[in-house]
Give the backbone structure.
Amino acid sequence: MKESPEALRERKRRQREKLRNLVLLLFPKDCFRCHRFGLEMEFAHLKPTGLRGRQRGSVEALRDVLQNRESYARLCWECHRGIDSGKLPLELEEAPF
Ligand SMILES: [Zn+2]
């Protein structure tokens, strides 16, 4: 039987959710730069992995983090914005998600 579009979407969503939870376990919960908790957290590149921002949130982006763990950091959105805008030191590329 062919999978319905809804079932496929749901299966993909679950797959992404599982992968995301796995990725989150690999990183400390505080911000890499300011070590604060409780802010909205994002991932950013410390080193380029060849993956660009357009794949943000995708299964591919999450797989890339799993495979290149040392190339990523978890940042709070404030540090991430500050670094991206050049106001804070620490060279980073755009986060894939
Ligand atoms: Zn921070």
